[in-house]
Amino acid sequence: MIIAIAQTNYHIGNFERNTEKIIATIAEAKRKGADLVVFPEITIGGYLAKDLFRYRSFLDACETSIEQIAASCVGIACIIGAPVRSKLTKGKQLYNAALFIVDGAVKDTVHKTLLPDYDVFDEYRYFEPNNTFKCVDYKGNRIALTICEDLWNEHFPSLYPQDPMIELAKQQPNIMINVAASPFSESHFEARCAVVTAHSKRHALPALYVNTIGAHADIIFDGRSLVFDEKAKLIDVLNPFAEDLRYYQLNGKELVARQLTTVYKEPESIVNIHEALVLGIKDFFAKSGFKKAILGLSGGIDSAVVAALACEALGSTNVMGVLMPSIYSTGHSVDDAMDLVGNLGCLHEVIPIKEATEAFDNMMMKAFKGKENDITEENIQARVRAIVLMAMSNKHGYILLNTSNKSEAAVGYGTLYGDMAGSLGVIGDVLKTKVYQLAHYINRNGIVIPENTITKAPSAELRPDQKDSDSLPEYNVLDAILHRYVELEMSSKEIIADGFDEALVQRVIKLVVGSEFKRFQSPPILRVTRKAFGVGRAMPLVAKHPF
């Protein structure tokens, strides 16, 4: 039997486009001699469509799409993920399902057993878990078919006491197939490989792990579907961050690729983060119907990195950088920003904000009488810049990209309705130290981001001679603490035990906790770590934390 893996990028709710793509892929696989083509988890409708699953019209459209796809499955079969209505009188009225379609009809349906409800996942909100297990038979082969987390019970034994693969293995399958929608994070690929390897080895079965690719606002899927032979040897990895269609020959339990494969070598983490961010920007604009981006260019490293990523994703002529120097902006900052514009070839405008900030100062003079200048005046400058950028956005149809990094977002080093404005937070899940790594990677083939932008001390330039280090610890120390507290969810005691100064740890955590209300009003952030700010980190706004 020849099996095709279809690693696809779909658009949530875009049934016409998605269905056309699926049917075209099935036709292509059939032309290449495939007997079975496998698509990822909830390809129909889109993972995760969230509360769209509650709309009858959405589920009706899913069923219409299934009928159209089934009609194209003549002389070839497909496995495809979809939401399926249940007939239960109690419990959720929907299953996360994998459909086996052949001869123009759905012949078997497998329901997902282990429904995740952690981080960005909330499948128990919509789906009923499976409690029956049956392999799929086709052309003399018996397929142990599972859905994403169904393989991950060992990682959550208290939550998932039942192991679907152990139940299915009792029926003596000759291959295991897992359809998945596993989001990207910088360290997750190794975990996926380990999980699938363990099952393949335990049950002495070849394994196909079919993952989706594409970005849906904040969540990015990286593809990299996995293929293992019956000896649990990794024999193929599909393209990272791109669609792919590949073919494999199954003879009994022997699985071999029908195309040349190379030994996959996982690149450095920063390479994957770069590719993920580019895909995140590209899909956010394409799937939202937008074409042009705008951002403020300060001459600093954050805006330079975001500009470079946006130009790569959208094309330089679709990116507008706006320089908004104030009376505190240094000449080299303007020069660095202009050098960046020249290197990228993007559009630009120079709109000084001196007159606008002076107008605000004059307007507020009476109300502020007797008060010294402080952070209030600094924030006015940041908000004036946001007004300029949003005016350009409204007038010219640009979509504003936010350039705040994760370190700043964590400790509240940003101005609400100022430099925190935007439709998409591009590097809001990238710690400052990794922003520098991104800059060096962007410059791997030549200077794109000016050297002075990378080497100079970071500054918001909202007061004379201001430096980030005036308000924050050095970024290498700050980021080490933030990584432990936010991403690894360690307590202050555990972080201090790692050798960090107690007073500093308490101060940083207090800043993180005190900034929850700011992040609650932030734009969606492209997720590239195991714990990003946003839907995957749900914190109360007014709780007292045990620092």
From TrEMBL:
GO terms assigned for molecular function:
NAD+ synthase (glutamine-hydrolyzing) activity
**Family annotation (NCBIfam families):** nadE, PRK13981.1
Annotated pathway, please? Cofactor biosynthesis; NAD(+) biosynthesis; NAD(+) from deamido-NAD(+) (L-Gln route): step 1/1
- Lineage, opening ranks: Bacteria, Pseudomonadati, Bacteroidota, Sphingobacteriia, Sphingobacteriales
Instruction: Give me the residues that bind L-glutamine, please.
Output: 118, 182
In the record, the note on similarity to other proteins reads: Belongs to the NAD synthetase family.
Q: Where is the CN hydrolase domain?
A: 1-252
- Give the catalysed reaction(s), semicolon-separated: deamido-NAD(+) + L-glutamine + ATP + H2O = L-glutamate + AMP + diphosphate + NAD(+) + H(+)
Domain of life, source organism? Bacteria
The region annotated as signal peptide is none
Query: Whose protein is this, by species?
Result: Olivibacter jilunii
Q: What are the EC numbers?
A: 6.3.5.1
What is the recorded name of this protein?
Glutamine-dependent NAD(+) synthetase
Please give the Gene3D superfamilies that the UniProt record associates with this protein: Carbon-nitrogen hydrolase, HUPs
